Amino acid sequence: MDKINAITIVINGMATTYQIGQGKSGGTKVIASIERVPGYEDGSGTYFPGTFLAKDKDGNKLVEISDTIPYVITYV
Known about the structure:
The protein is mainly β.
């Protein structure tokens, strides 16, 4: 799987980009990785959407983005 460099989301007509090496709102925590967690369907047929997780260098989750909203991915 290709490595994700950035993800841009669009909410209420405004675009926000989360990029590796850039700080999260206010520049306090630098994003070290962006990972894709795929969605799944349980035994009853209920679908749970996937997410994108932006994490810091220690693996702490900074941002969780649902894949039910419009997004554009930039790969390394």
